[in-house]
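agent> Task received from the user: take the single chain below, predict its 3D structure, and emit structure tokens. No templates, no multimer pairing.
agent> Plan: (1) validate residues, (2) run structure prediction, (3) serialize to tokens, (4) report one or two observations.
agent> Step 1 OK, no nonstandard residues flagged.
tool_call: predict_structure(input=
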Amino acid sequence: MEEVNETLVTEFILQGITDLPQLQIALFITFLMFYLLSFVGNVSIVAVVIADRGLHTPMYFLLGNLSFLDFFYATTTVPKMLSGLLVEDKKISFRACITQLHIFHFLGSTEAMLLSSMSYDRYVAICNPLRYHVLMAREVCFQLAFTSWLVGFLYSLSHTILTSRLPFCQKNKITHFYCDIKPLLKLACTDTRINESLVSIVTGSVAVGSFILIIVSYSFIATHLQNLHSEQGKSKAISTCTSHFTVVLLYYGTAFFTYLRPATKDSLEQDRLTAILFTVITPALNPIIYALRNKDVKRALRKLFFTRPMF
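)
tool_result: status=success, residues=311
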């Protein structure tokens, strides 16, 4: 069913990833494993950051925010996608669709801001270590986290309000496995140039602006490391930055590819495949990247899950 009898659409149909039965079960098992890995990994990091006093530092406070966000980021889209691989009914109500769109972009833009905050934290720790506890005091950390969440919420709210006010007539099949802005705009039965401009300008400003802040931070770090004579100091600094920069490349590579291109039929198909990376795979990889390369996190995980009290 691709058309509805009502003048205005009250529900949408998510096209999903594939209609091939032989692929659906395999994809369901694969994506379920990634989702469970995301759950275990991100919840574990949040737990150790809260429980281990040795991780009560700005770096791990921001990491805890990122892990908390990543779990709910995946939860916004993956369960609905998994159900679509098992059942034929892929309907989603208009209200649920708009809610999913809002939460998805709220968390996605907040992640961009958090990654910028984390790069600033690394800049201060490496380039201004003597002033680190002043420049990254508890109040500053809370302000950085609060600002990240607030900017993400306001950014998403602008998209949500404008998209929810569009009329949708007859066409109700979304070329995606979740409700996103570009596929929805293609279904609207009115001029959507304002919305398309908002996606390009506002999304571009948030993504490019936060990415520039990260590049500036790492430029200062690179300059500082060039002047650092201690090889041990260089190695330690690079080690603390590598995990973060890997996550940055995964996040911004897919974000730029998806949202800074015009919406065409071919690009929407490509966006659906790219979305699998940043909704399913990246949230599962982030805790692995941080845990496997970070001695403090590995120590805290062993202490939390494998140390037994002696009686």
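agent> Step 4: summary for the user.
The beta strands are 11-14, 91-93, 173-174.
agent> Done.
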